[in-house]
Amino acid sequence: MATTELAALRRGLLARPTATTGRLSWLTTVDHKRIGVLYGYTAFFFLLVGGIEALLIRLQLAGPNATVLSSDAYSQLFTMHGVTMIFLVVMPLGAAFFNYLLPLQIGARDVAFPRLNAFSYWLFLFGGVYLYSSVFLGGMPDGGWFGYAPLSEQDLLAHRMDFYALGLQIVGIASLVSAVNFIVTVINMRAPGMSLMRLPVFTWMTLVVAFLLLFAIPVIGIGLFQLMFDRLFGAVFFNPAAGGDPILWQHMFWLFGHPEVYILILPAMGIVSEVLPTFSGKPLFGYAAVVFAGVAIGFMGWGVWAHHMFTSGLGPVANSAFALSTMFIAVPTGIKIFNWLGTMWGGNIRFRTPMLFSIGFVAMFIIGGLSGVTHALVPSDYQQHDTYYVVAHFHYVLFGGALFGLFSGLYYWFPKLTGRMMSEGLGRLHFWLMLIGFNLTFAPMHILGLQGMPRRIYTYPDGMGWNFWNLVETVGAFTIAVSILVFMANWIVSRRRGAEAGADPWDARTVEWMTTNPPPPHNFDEVPVIHARDEFWHRKYAENEEGVPVPAVAGAADEDAEGSPIHMPNPSYFPLIAALGLPLVAWGLTFASAWLIGTGAVLVLAGLYGWALEPSSE
Q1: pLDDT band at 555 (very low <50, low <70, confident <90, very high)
Q2: Are the C-beta atoms of residues 177 and 120 closer than 8 Å to each other?
Q3: Dihedrals φ, ψ of 549, to 5°?
Q4: What is the mean pLDDT of the chain?
């Protein structure tokens, strides 16, 4: 057989034809847009799961001495609600936007490493499946979403916190490889003329988040390894009886955990920085200030972690230092808020659904930020720390902030995803129900916290003065649930029968709107050449003598473009195979099964081997 025939046969064996259409094609896709869709739908499924957990928690706390949940069931739901909403909802929803939009916003045809992108999604999915398999294998993690030692090391015969330690490792690897992919994509794959100071703000925030993930995930990874070795192999990292230090876990967790706060909120800040200019009819006020404030938040986020530990006995010097750093990090956040307000000031505002959610984000985030700054005062924090006041604060930041911003992005880019418009009436109903329900749920927690209601309790006695506000919070939680049902109905109906979106439904400003809705697999027929920030807007408008934007004369816009060969990667099942092995290894470690560990390791190695030898494209 000729050498060329052998080479062709080898290519055929390693890159067997895979489906590019139909349901099976989703298993092998490496298209960044489809992976973004997979991330989004999976994260939304976990949002429903986490929401159901929250409703059960609120039913238990709706009145005194309730028996809806036992203390054991409450601990499991309380733990998994936090783990789910942080690691399986808000982070991957941000990743969904990153995956779908990042190449489009920088004028690229794909991410730098398409198979690595697919690998990250399957790891996220299998990590979530592994975590929730605990429901059928002895119970869900019950040591709190923060996993504080030595609580997380009790009852070694039960495997609940083993699922926590290993499940978060798998999800963390997914975030880590995504971070590497996004960093390389932004640095190396920008369209000609797309300098860093011409990047859309959302792309900038993606880059900052990717660097935060790159350095934060290894920190929590080491802590989780230590917890795993303590639980499975008898190590004593966090066992004070054997010379270990449980405070070490808190330092490890929060050294990851406070950059994590900005990993969760910066994507929403980026979305709002795109939506507000579009619906205000003017450029983002102080673009450079917004960008550098985001970068400053990324740097300063590493210096505030111990404000979560003011009650752990660090001493007055450490407490004072971290109190000051907590006050300082409010400065770049305040800069962003004033820039957003400046963008709206004097603008021709259109109160469409994406704009409503962005304005809601700004308002709710201001409240969460103000309550957060009160925790920089150590004596005040000492009283508030273990009360519902803190629960109110971080929900105003992560729900009122992150989720409001993410919903703004879902409405804004829905035409880009589907080519159709979502119902404006249902969108407004969703917004007002969510805004009202959110404030009914979490605003009273400030009052309950100041009245002394402890967090992390599964019931409370009558006569404490907490009954009324807890009932109000439960009503608010179910109002939020109704708003989510409205959103789901809107999404499903609009995807099938929504009005045709057209090429530019919002009169947008950035590069992703320069291609079709939805985009083709290769994104752009010709890679655009970028001449200005807000490139798309400048191609549509010119300024008259008074500096007022006017529609550009047809053909007057600079349409120079650089043609390039359209060279797209083939679908591949090897990322799926490699990712599938890791939960098998984790189940094997959990239950001391050498057979499962070996099977999982073989799958990981086989997947990586095939991946390495597979031709990237035909």
Answers
A1: very low
A2: yes
A3: -65, 135
A4: 91
Question: What integer pLDDT is reported at residue 12 of this predicted model?
Answer: 42
**In Å, how far are 98, 270, 416, 499, 506 from 205, measured between CA atoms?**
10, 6, 20, 31, 22
Q: Tell me: pLDDT of 240 over 60.
A: yes
The Cα–Cα gap between 67 and 71 comes to 9
Residues 135-141, mean pLDDT to the nearest whole number: 94
Per DSSP, 420 falls in state B
Q: How confident is the model at residue 566 (pLDDT cuts 50, 70, 90)?
A: confident
Give domain limits for the chain: 23-571, 572-618
Dist CA 26 CA 29 (whole Å): 5
- Taking alpha carbons only, the member of 606, 615, 595, 586 closest to residue 171 is 586
Asked if residues 79 and 538 have their Cβ atoms less than 8 Å apart, the reply is: no
Tokens of 483: 């708003």
Q: How far apart are CA 263 and CA 173, in angstroms?
A: 15
What is the value of pTM for the model shown?
0.93
Whole-angstrom distance, CA of residue 52 vs CA of residue 38: 21
Q: What is the pLDDT of residue 545?
A: 63
186 pLDDT more than 50: yes
At 479, give phi and psi (nearest 5°): -65, -40
Question: How far, CA to CA in Å, does 283 sit from each of 76, 137, 205, 507, 545?
Answer: 47, 54, 17, 12, 19
Are 600 and 584 contacting, i.e. CB atoms less than 8 angstroms apart? yes
The rounded distance, in Å, linking the Cα atoms of 181 and 177 is: 6
Q: What are phi and psi of 63, to 5 degrees?
A: -150, 170
Q: At what angle do helices 574-590 and 114-133 cross, to 10 degrees?
A: 30
Read off the tokens for 282. Answer: 């003017």
Instruction: Please give the Cα distance from 176 to 130 (Å, whole number).
Output: 18
d(CA 297, CA 207): 13
C-beta separation of 76 from 160 below 8 A: yes
Residue 540 pLDDT level (bands cut at 50, 70, 90): confident
**Closest by Cα among 109, 274, 192, 106 to 530:** 192
**pLDDT given for residue 8 in this prediction:** 41
Under CATH, which architecture does the 23-571 domain have? Up-down Bundle (1.20)
The arithmetic mean of pLDDT across residues 328-349, rounded, is 95
Q: Of all helices (H) and strands (E), which one includes residue 528? A: strand 527-528
| Alpha carbons 362 and 244: distance in angstroms, whole number | 43
Question: Is the pLDDT reported for residue 558 higher than 50?
Answer: no
- Residue 19: predicted pLDDT: 52
Please state the rounded mean pLDDT for residues 95-109.
96
- Cβ contact 561:529 at 8 Å: yes
- Cβ–Cβ < 8 Å for 566, 109: yes
- Cα→Cα distances 248→152, 255, 314, 610, Å: 13, 10, 12, 40
DSSP track, 22-59 = STTHHHH---HHHHHHHHHHHHHHHHHHHHHHHHHHHH
Question: CA-to-CA distance for 539 and 544, rounded, in angstroms?
Answer: 15
pLDDT in tens, 451-478: 999 999 999 999 999 999 999 999 999 9
Q: Could you tell me which of 180, 139, 184, 183 has the C-alpha nearest to residue 162?
A: 139
